[in-house]
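User: Sequence recovery, please. Input:
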């Protein structure tokens, strides 16, 4: 597999390889410090980023390469040059392209026209590199056996909810997503696709509107912002009202398994999707999770550029 475009393109073996290497890069960040010597990686983002941008630039530096960061208003792409032409040009200079934007189809178009690996650094649909950091953090807490555990996401049925379903299905885990009904529920096509995949991996997909039952005995309670980048401000009041009962407070955390942890991809809005007590409390692993954004992006660059990732669709 050349690119990392969607979480459910990976196999469990691919994920294990990436997480093993990321764990190595956590202990020894410079273990492959000549891998990208004299080479560049282009990072292009049309949405803001703290973690993904800085983790990507640091990962490239640790591999011995030079990151080139370009904003939307710095490329001719914003002035009508085509995605295909842009992909061809970047392929002539760099070893990989990391891209964050709105439409998943734009990332897929870029990848189809690029001869170098393209890594999706978040779209409206997907956040695969976040999923790698999340599950490395989960593995550090609970080991590699995900059976007999419940992994729950609560909140908006957004790109992170969909990514949670996909990685759960890939890994054969029991994942639960609790969202309000209707507009803020995950895309039904993604639910169907992940249910089908879970049937082949031994996982279970549960989509519910009952937040308390979703959190009961969960090993992980995960949440994300209620207003994502690109969401319409016109929806804010209605959305926040609908999501109120999905706020992760001590009352929800108390329903979790006794060793249950709290996770969040960040940025967080204390007092909205999570209370300060929870995110800053003893069960929160969010700082380790954020740390692993660098280790896992470094692993993704390393293995994609080497051509080690098999992919589920191969
Ligand atoms: N979690 C995450 O992707 O954070 P940034 O938006 O800061 O990159
Ligand atoms: N759902 C959020 C995730 C941020 C990392 C967004 O897309 O803005």
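Assistant: Recovered sequence (314 residues):
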């Amino acid at each position: 597999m050349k690119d990392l475009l969607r979480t459910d393109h990976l196999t469990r073996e691919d994920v294990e390889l990436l997480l093993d290497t990321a764990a190595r890069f956590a202990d020894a960040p410079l273990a492959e410090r000549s891998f990208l010597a004299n080479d560049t990686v282009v990072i292009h983002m049309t949405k803001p980023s703290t973690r993904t941008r800085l983790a990507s630039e640091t990962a490239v530096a640790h591999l011995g390469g030079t990151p080139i960061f370009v904003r939307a208003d710095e490329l001719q792409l914003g002035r009508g040059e085509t995605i295909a032409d842009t992909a061809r040009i970047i392929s002539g200079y760099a070893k990989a392209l990391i891209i964050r934007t709105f439409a998943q189809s734009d990332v897929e178009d870029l990848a189809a026209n690029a001869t170098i690996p393209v890594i999706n650094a978040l779209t409206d649909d997907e956040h695969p590199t976040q999923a790698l950091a999340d599950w490395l953090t989960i593995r550090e807490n609970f080991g590699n056996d995900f059976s007999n555990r419940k992994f729950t996401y609560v909140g908006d049925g957004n790109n992170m909810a969909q990514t949670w379903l996909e990685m759960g299905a890939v890994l054969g885990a029991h994942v639960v997503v609790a969202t309000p009904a209707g507009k803020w529920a995950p895309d039904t096509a993604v639910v169907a696709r992940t249910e089908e995949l879970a049937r082949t991996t031994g996982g279970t997909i549960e989509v519910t509107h009952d937040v308390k039952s979703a959190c009961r005995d969960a090993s992980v309670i995960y949440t994300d912002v209620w207003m994502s980048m690109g969401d319409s401000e016109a929806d804010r009041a209605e959305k926040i009202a609908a999501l109120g009962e999905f706020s992760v407070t001590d009352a929800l955390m108390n329903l979790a398994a006794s060793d249950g942890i709290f996770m969040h991809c960040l940025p967080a809005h204390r007092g909205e999707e999570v209370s300060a007590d929870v995110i800053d409390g003893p069960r929160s692993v969010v700082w380790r999770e954020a740390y692993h954004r660098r280790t896992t992006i470094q692993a993704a660059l390393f293995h994609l550029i080497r051509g080690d990732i098999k992919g589920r669709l191969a």
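The first strand starts at residue 40 and ends at 45.
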